[in-house]
Amino acid sequence: MTEVAGAVIKKDGKTLICRRPANKSCALLWEFPGGKQEKGETLEQALARECMEELGIEISVGKQLHETVYEYPERKLRLHFFAAKITGGKLSKKEHAEIRWVLPEEIAKFEFCPSDKEFIESYKF
């Protein structure tokens, strides 16, 4: 099973979401920033590394908000969603097709990866 960490980053009442690139799985669907845990990393370290690599930002990782298991045809994921704050760097689109800050009432308008949907339905943004 692949362990994945996602960041729920809020600023001025909005949440950061990212649109996956066209050449990756779940092409052009939306997700929360983050990625796969590598050997020897904690989930929090993986999340910080992924945010730096993909968005150019340093983050502080807070408490875990949700955990879920989702099985795609090609792989099984355990997703861990954490509260996080930007502490440095400059937010930039290094890998994603698009990045946006959205209001809580706007989140439902975006088509997210299937693995994120349980979290979105249960979390109060």
Q: Per DSSP, what share of the residues sits in E-state strands of 2 or more residues?
A: 35-45%
The end-to-end distance, rounded to whole angstroms, is 28 Å
CATH topology name: Nucleoside Triphosphate Pyrophosphohydrolase
Overall domain count = 1
Shape: globular
According to DSSP, the number of beta strands is 7
Which whole number gives the mean pLDDT? 95
Biggest sheet descriptor: 7 strands, mixed
CATH architecture: Alpha-Beta Complex
Q: Which stretches are poorly predicted, pLDDT < 50 over at least 5 residues?
A: none
Report the C-alpha radius of gyration, rounded: 13 Å
The total of helices stands at: 2
SSE order, as H and E? EEEEHEEEH
| Secondary structure: helix percent | 10-25%
Give the CATH class: Alpha Beta
Going by CATH, the homologous superfamily would be Nucleoside Triphosphate Pyrophosphohydrolase
Structural class: alpha+beta
Condensed summary:
The protein has 125 residues and is α+β, with helices and mostly antiparallel strands. It has helices spanning 43-55, 117-122; strands at 2-11, 14-19, 30-31, 34-36, 57-71, 76-89, 98-102. The protein is globular.
